[in-house]
Design a protein that fits this description.
P-loop_NTPase, mainly alpha, ATP-binding, 4 strands, Rossmann fold, nucleotide-binding, kinase
Length: 168
């Protein structure tokens, strides 16, 4: 809703152009296959994140940069994924954007469904979001405007370059 998938794809394209193998694990797509048996209840959300973390670890073990694009509302679940990827290979990107922006960028109409009560346990509406305490990257509004997906991807890319993650 904040543009996660768009940013993930832009980042993947840029990394690919630089010769890096990448794969994007998108939360919506995973819920149609691997995680189709899970609801949006807290325990199922935790299992969703756990499964994604395990798959991301397999990609990382194969030398592929895995970009996950999903809402992970609980710190304990994100911390569990971080523990799966030692040596600082887990980089948390927090898209710290106002709820109004997320709702305005909702192509699937999920916020409308949540506000009307058709989806229960929706992050930001009737379920909390626990912001990261020590995320590596925070993407925010700049001068009252939301950065473009390309600018957001470049912010992540800059971090990766500056911290030596893209060494040959």
């Amino acid at each position: 809703m904040s543009g996660k998938s768009t940013v993930a794809c832009a980042l993947s394209r840029e990394l690919h152009c630089r010769g890096h193998l990448t794969y994007v694990l998108d939360g919506d797509n995973l819920r149609h296959g691997l995680n189709r048996d899970l609801s949006f209840k807290a325990e199922d959300r935790a299992e969703n994140i756990r499964r994604v973390g395990e798959v991301a670890k397999l990609f990382a073990d194969a030398g592929i940069i895995c970009i996950t694009s999903l809402i992970s509302p609980y710190r304990k679940d994100r911390d569990a994924c971080r523990a799966l990827l030692p040596d600082s290979r887990f980089i948390e990107v927090f898209m710290d954007l106002p709820l109004e922006i997320c709702e305005a960028r909702d192509p699937k109409g999920l916020y409308k469904l949540a506000r009307s009560g058709k989806i229960k346990g929706f992050t930001g509406i009737d379920d909390p979001y626990e912001p990261p305490l020590n995320g590596e990257i925070v993407i925010k509004m700049k001068d009252g405007a939301c950065p473009s997906p390309k600018a957001m991807a470049k912010q992540v890319l800059w971090y990766l370059e500056e911290n030596g993650y893209l060494q040959p």
